[in-house]
């Protein structure tokens, strides 16, 4: 377990997963073991969304890739690259064509192994400052590699009637619950504020949109995304890809309020 500390803020990271962010003793992150989701955060890469209706196949310029929901990156382990009292860097490296075991098999998937026809390196870094907490992602690899990226953090809810404020609009928890597993899209948006017992603002660079998901009242996932996967049929998921240059950098800034 990696712990970062700055003034009254404490972050705990378990094998690259953000499992706790407290400010003045207030916990902002959904806790494993609580109802709703078995994780606290994860990444969606190189695809976002389900692919079961497309036979777990995604079109790429190098042919079809075998992928499961939200991609295969989450099935790989992080290694610690660097750590200080207020920062930490984790990385995953993938060699094209390598089969990665799919933890959803066989209960939730017919595919035992997932693969991708491109090499890549995925870096996740954390930085705790005086008044905020930054999570940064850096993707490098083969130039022209198609990909999507989504960050999937879960926030703990302390009240019954939290409000999500985005683009001068307020979204209730009931509105998110009503959409169900598809997740509520918040398009063309780079900043969302979760108004609960304590406020927290999620500001982003590089993503462009959000989607919000929960099936319970004690947590909510507010997920920065590069593409909303339900905008197309699953067989056309490739339409949401962007192409990698030398590298791509994405940022998520968590800013606690009152």
Automatic annotation (TrEMBL):
Q: Keywords assigned by UniProt?
A: Calcium
**What Pfam families does the record tag this protein with?**
Aldose_epim
- Gene3D superfamilies registered for this protein in UniProt: 2.70.98.10
Query: What InterPro entries does UniProt report for this protein, alphabetically?
Result: Aldose_1/G6P_1-epimerase, Gal_mutarotase_sf_dom, GH-type_carb-bd
Q: Which residues form a coiled coil?
A: none
What are the names of the required cofactors? Ca(2+)
- Subunit structure as annotated in this protein's UniProt entry: Monomer.
Q: What is this protein called?
A: Aldose 1-epimerase
